[in-house]
Amino acid sequence: MGNIDINLKINTYNLIANMDLILPDYYGENIYTLSCFIAEYLGVQRQCLNKMNLNVNSKLVLALFDGLGWNILNQTSINLEAKKITTVFPSTTSTVLTTLFTASTPGEHGVLGYNTFVKRLGGVVNTLRYTYPIISERDSLSSSVPFSSSFPNVKSYLKEAQGKKPISIVPKGIENTEFSNATHGASGESKTYVNFWDAFYQLSQVLQQDAYDFIYFYVPDVDTLSHRYGPYAEPTIKSARDILASILEISQKHKKYSFIITADHGHVTVSETILFNNDQELINMLDVPPYGDSRAIFLRTRYDVSTYLSRKYESLKIFGKTDFEKLLGKINDVSVLPDYIAVPTDYRAFIFNFKEKDEYDKLKGHHGGLLQEEFAIPLVILNG
C-alpha cells in the first residue's frame, strides 16, 4: 500500500477518532472471557465474570499472532470466518498475555502495561523484560526479587491443568524468562524457533507427534513490522497474509486439533509523537515518570493533573480512580493503581523516554489504547 493511501487512511480515521473509544466488556466477547473458557477446557476453575462457550475438539491449538488486529486482518484478503471481539486494557502484549494465561482481569493480576509501577521494587518496571526501563539486560531483577513476589496475583492456570498435556512454541530467546514462566511457560515444556518458517515447521512437528492436548503457538512478526512500518504498510500486511495462509494449511492437515486463532491487540498509525520528557511542568507534578504505554498513560501524583492535561493535550481522555473498574475489570489491590489514566482519542503517541538514547519515539505503529484499530481483534475457530 502506498504512502498516499496510508495518509488518506490516517486522515479519515482522525475525523472519527474522538467518538470512537471502546470500553472493555469483561462480560462479553473479550479475550478475558476466552481465557476463562480455555482454563475450564484444561480443567481449571476460575471465578470469572463470564466465559465464552466454544465448540472445540479434545485437542486444541491456541495461535496468538501478536499485533494482528481486526484492522490488519481485513487488509489480508484471506477468506476466514472470523468474529470481531475485543481485547483488554491496556491493549498491550504483557497485559493481554497475562490475562490470557491466568483467566483474570488486568485489575486482578496487576500487570498494567509495557512499563508498570511495582511498589515492592520501588519504581517503574518493564514487565516483559522484568527489568528497570533504563536497563537492557532481561530479568535483571530476578536474582533479588522473583517475578512472583512483584506480581503475586499472576497465577497461570497451566500449572493447574487437569488431565491435559500442554506445550508452548515461542521465538528463541523468550522461553524460560521470568514473564514467560509466569504465564505460558508455566506448562513446563516448550519448543523454540528462529524465524517464520521454523515456527510453522516446529508446530507441524509437534502436531505430528500427537502427544499434546494443548499447544500454545505465538508469532510476533506482524507486531514487529507494524511498529516499524505501520499497520497498513506492505510488509505488515504481507506478513499477516502469509501467517494466516500457513496456519490454514496446517489446520487442514490436522483435523483432530481445533485451532483458536486470535491476537493481543491491533495497531494505529501514529500521526504525531509527543515527548513528555519535554513537559517539565507535568513531570514536576508527578511522583514517578509517566508509565504504561504510549497510548495508555498511567500517572501517579498528589496533584489534580486532569485540568492541566485536558487544557494542554485536548485529545487525551482522562480517567480517574472511580473509572478504573470500567477499564481494568475486577480489582484486587488498589495500591498497584495510578491516580489517573490518560488515553488518546486521536492517533498521537505520548511517550516518556526513560533512556536518553531510545528509538521508541521513532516507531510508526503504536497500541495500548481504546480506539477500534488497536482494541478490536479477530477470533477464528478452525476444525471446531
What tags apply to this protein structure?
alpha/beta; 14 helices; globular; Alkaline phosphodiesterase I / Nucleotide pyrophosphatase; single chain; 384 residues; four-stranded antiparallel sheet
Could you describe the 3D structure shown?
By secondary structure, the protein is an alpha/beta fold. The chain has a single domain, classed as Alkaline Phosphatase, subunit A. Helices cover 30% and strands 20% of the residues. The chain is built from 14 helices and 17 strands. The protein has helices spanning 3-16, 31-41, 70-73, 93-102, 106-109, 147-150, 178-182, 196-209, 221-229, 234-253, 280-285, 306-312, 324-328, 372-375; strands spanning 59-65, 82-86, 115-118, 123-126, 166-171, 190-193, 214-219, 257-262, 268-269, 272-275, 291-293, 296-299, 316-319, 340-344, 348-351, 365-366, 376-382. The strands form 5 sheets. The protein has a 7-stranded mixed β-sheet with strand order 2-17-8-1-7-5-6. The chain has a 4-stranded antiparallel β-sheet with strand order 11-12-14-13, with helices on one face. Helix 7 links the parallel strand 5 and strand 6 (190-193). The protein starts with a helix and ends with a strand. Residues 1-19 have low confidence and may be disordered. Its EC number is 3.1.4.1, 3.6.1.9. GO terms for molecular function: nucleoside triphosphate diphosphatase activity; phosphodiesterase I activity. InterPro entries: Phosphodiest/P_Trfase.
